[in-house]
Amino acid sequence: MEANSIKGVIMGYARGTNTQYTSYALVKVLDTPERVGRVLGGIAIYKDKHGNSYRGRILKLHGRRGGVVLVRFNRGLPGQAIGGLVYIEPPSKTKTAH
User: Per-residue pLDDT tens for 10-34?
Assistant: First the structure.
């Protein structure tokens, strides 16, 4: 991964009372909780042991503190991904001209 990537751990799926959403995952960012807001809009990448990669976009913070974010992955994550390591690339700071 890139030098500026941040590590995170998949905690589990986003859930309702009767449903779990396998495309949405809660990710604990392994950085100081005060700086977690800078990864919003970034890309999260999970790679399994078979070489498959799952890319997702960081949507929002989950909770008021603790450094947990909600990530929407393009494909549903397998159950073996829970507890796995995620690499987070913060969004680029380049501005486009209007």
Answer: 999 999 999 999 999 999 999 887 7
Delimit the domains of the chain by residue range: 6-89
Look up residue 62 and give its two tokens: 């989950």
DSSP string of the chain? Answer: --TT-EEEEEEEEEE-SS-EEEEEEEEEESS-GGGGGGGTT-EEEEE-TTS-EEEEEEEEE-SSSSSEEEEEESSPPPGGGTT-EEEEEPPP------
Instruction: Take residue 68 and report the two structure tokens written for it.
Output: 């947990």
Give CATH for domain 6-89: 2.40.10.190
The strand pairing partners of 53, in sequence order, are: 47
- pTM equals 0.85
Q: What is the pLDDT of residues 39-98, one digit of tens each?
A: 899 999 999 999 999 999 999 998 887 889 999 999 889 999 999 999 999 887 645 555
